[in-house]
Design a protein that fits this description.
The structure holds 2 protein chains of 2 kinds. Helix content of chain A is about 85%, strand content about 0%. Chain A is mostly helical. Chain B has a 6-stranded mixed beta sheet with strand order 6-7-8-3-9-10, with helices on both faces. The chains are: A mainly alpha, B alpha/beta. The complex binds adenosine-5'-diphosphate (ADP) and magnesium ion.
Amino acid sequence: MMIAMSFFRAIVEREFMQFALITGLLIGFLAPLIGSFVVIRRLSLIADTLSHFSLAGIAIGLYFINILGVGFLSDPLYLGMLFAVIGSLIIELLRNYYKNYKEISMPIVISLGTALSALFISLSGGFTSSVYNYLFGSILTVGRVFTFIIIGVTILISGLLVVFYKQMVIISFDESYAKLLGIRVNIFQFFTTIILALVVSLSIETVGVLLVSSLMIIPVAAAMKIGKSFKNTLFLAIIFSEISVVMGLWLSFELSFPSGATIVLFNISIFLVVIILRRLIKRKNLRDNESEALL
Amino acid sequence: MRINVNNLSFGYDYRTVLKDVSFKLESGDFLVIIGNNGSGKSTLIKCLLGINKVPNKKIYLDDININDYRRWINIGYVPQKFDDFNYEFPITVNEILSVSKYGKITEDERLIWLDKLGILELQNENINNLSGGQLQRVFIVRALVNKPKLLILDEPTVGVDSTNIERFYNTINDLNKMGVTVILITHDIKSSKANFSHIMHLYNGTAVMKKIDRNVGDSS
Ligand SMILES: Nc1ncnc2c1ncn2[C@@H]1O[C@H](COP(=O)(O)OP(=O)(O)O)[C@@H](O)[C@H]1O
Ligand SMILES: [Mg+2]
C-alpha cells in the first residue's frame, strides 16, 4: 500500500514520471496496434530487424556526439530513427530482389545493423551506461521533447489508420484481393513499413533495441488466441500491452528494475496466463460435452 | 459488362497454356467454361482479371483495353483456392465483408446476400472456424458486395453441400437476369441449375464456344 502510494504521488508530483507514463502508455498503444498488422502478414521478424538497424544509427550518433563533438544531432535517437527508415527501405528492396525467399532480407539487414553497431559503439568509447540504456530501455529518463514527438506520432498514426482502415485490413489479410479491388498495394506497403520503422525506433526509448519486437508481437500473440473478432483482438492486445507498461513502470520505479525487461516479462506472463487459461477452459468444455453426451 | 477477347495466347515461362483464344460476351450473358484439369480455365480468367498480364489489344472490358482498365470494383471474383488469405488471425465474416465493400451496397443488402447463400447465422463467426463450404460461400458474398457488373467464379461449389449449391445457382441466375455478366468454371455442369447462355470447352488451351438457347422460365 505504502509502495503504491509513493508511485501515484510521484506521478502527480514529478514531471519525469509524467513523461514516463505518457510515453509508456502511448507506445503501449501503438506497438501492438502496428504489431497486429505485422503479425497477420507474417512479418514478425521485421521489428527486430529494424531495431537492430536503428541501433547502428544510434551508435553512429553517439560516435558523432561523443568523439567528433558534433552537437547538431543533440540526441542519437534521431539518427536511430533515420536508420530504421533506411533499414526498412533496404528490406523492401531485398524482398523484391528475392521474391521467393523474402525472409532472406531480414538476416542480411540484422547483420549489417549489428556489425555497424558493434563497430561504432567500440569507436565511441565502448559499453557505456547510455549504450546499456539503448539496448535495454530506460523509460524513466525520457524528456519533454521526446514526449511531444510521441504524442504527435500517435495522433498521426491513429488518424491514418482511421482513414485507411479498410485498405490496411484487406491488404493484410488478402493482398491479391486488395490488388483486384485496385488498391495500390505497393504504396501502402511502403508507407506502412516507414511507419513501422518510426514506431520501432521510438519504442527503443522505452524497452530498448533488444526488446522492441516483443512489445509489438507478444500482446498480439496472446490476444489472437482469444479474440472474438478483429477489432476485439486489437482491443485485447492493447489492453494486455498497457497493463504490462503500467506494471513495468511501477516496478522499475519502486525497485529500480530495468523498465524494458520488466515490461516485457509482464507481457510474457500475460501471454502464458492466457494460453494456460484457454487450455483449461477448452478441456473443461470438452469434459462437459462428453458428460452431456453420456446422459 | 461487355467482354472482347481477340486471339489471346498466354503461357507461363516457356510453356504455352492458352492458344489463340477469341470470344465475345455482351452484358447479361452467362458463360460456363469446362475442360480438364490443367486445360487453362483458371489461366484464362486470370487474364480477364488483370492478374496475368497480357499484351495490348488482346482483351477489352466494356471496350476499354484491359491494360488501361481501372474500374476493377465492377468485377466480383471468387478464386479457386483461398491460399492467399492469411488465416488464423481472428476476423469475423461481417468484418471481412465490410472492409471488402467500397460503398455500393447497403447493410441490408449484405444481410440479404448472406441469407440467400444460407450463411446469415455465421455473420459474427470467426472466419477460421468455418468449414470449406461455408468459407466458399463467404467469398461468394464478398464478390457480390460491390454490386459487380461482371462476376467470375472459379469452381465455386467445390465443398458445398447440395442444398446450398441449389441456393447458389438460384442467386447467380437471379443476378444474371438483372444484367450481371457471369463467367463460371465448373465440373458438374450437367447436374447444375446454371441458366447459362454460352458454353466454352477448353481443350489443351484451345477454346470452342457455343451459344445455347436458354431454358426460359426454368429458374424462377
Ligand atoms: N502461376 C503459374 N505458373 C506456372 N504454371 C502455371 C501457373 N498457373 C497454372 N500453371 C500451369 O498452367 C496450366 C493450366 O493451369 P490452369 O489454368 O490452372 O488449369 P485449370 O484451371 O483448367 O485446371 C497447368 O499446366 C498449370 O500447371
Ligand atoms: Mg483451375
